[in-house]
Hints:
CATH superfamily of the largest domain: P-loop containing nucleotide triphosphate hydrolases
Number of domains: 2
Number of strands: 11
CATH class of the largest domain: Alpha Beta
CATH topology of the largest domain: Rossmann fold
Radius of gyration: 18 Å
Strand content: 15-25%
Distance between the termini: 36 Å
Bound molecules: adenosine-5'-triphosphate
Amino acid sequence: MTVALETRNLVKRFGAFMATNDVSLSVRQGARHALIGPNGAGKTTLINLLTGALTPSSGQVLLGGEDITNLPAHVRVGRGLSRTFQINQLFGDFTPLESMMLAIGEREGHGWRAWKPLSRDREVADEAAQLLERFRLVDTMGVPTALLPYGKQRLLEIALAIATRPRVLLLDEPAAGVPEEERHEVLSIVRELPPDVTVVLIEHDMDLVFSFADRISVLAAGSLFAEGTVEEISKDRHVKAIYLGEDA
Ligand SMILES: Nc1ncnc2c1ncn2[C@@H]1O[C@H](COP(=O)(O)OP(=O)(O)OP(=O)(O)O)[C@@H](O)[C@H]1O
């Protein structure tokens, strides 16, 4: 089994409070791995430690076996670790096509100024078209992003993260705020991404988690509380007690 992303004895203290308590997590290559746990369990803190938004008090983060614990966030992106955010960070005036061309151009190191000539670049345009199609954004690729239905905006965020060609994609509640009928579409598209992209998902909606994940880790009070397949976790009495019981 190849491990894509790993933490070793990861600890994050805020003052005397331990938000992350000795977490050793292993995410295998190609996994659809969900991170669940009750409010305040430390899911967002853990994701922030993985991306480099927070520095751990102790412990290590490894990407593809390499220690990235002390690398800044943007360098981690360059190494293949991408994330999307809960908050909407899209440029509202840009169309999905424009945003996609820009994201691909940035990845290729063209930057802002090369944007116009880039629009004539066949390879970039082809890749943008493919990604927009995969994320079911072709019909709306010329519409300013601010005018898109929310589910489409979330899909665009994920598509833009994929344009950076990540090895590991971290998704923090990608379906939050998306109407019920569009939620499953968002995650089924992510699920069907090629296996060279490993996905780690934080999600509160257990229906979505169970239909998406092939592996689930449960956090509680900062610690890794349980880990297993969907079947194992959905049947686990202790998990039900601390987590599923909340919704019941
Ligand atoms: N910067 C901070 N300073 C102090 N305490 C913090 C800080 N960030 C998070 N915490 C605390 O750490 C704990 C874990 O928070 P975190 O946001 O990681 O949980 P979570 O599992 O993502 O919760 P939720 O599901 O509600 O988003 C909480 O008790 C929170 O109050």
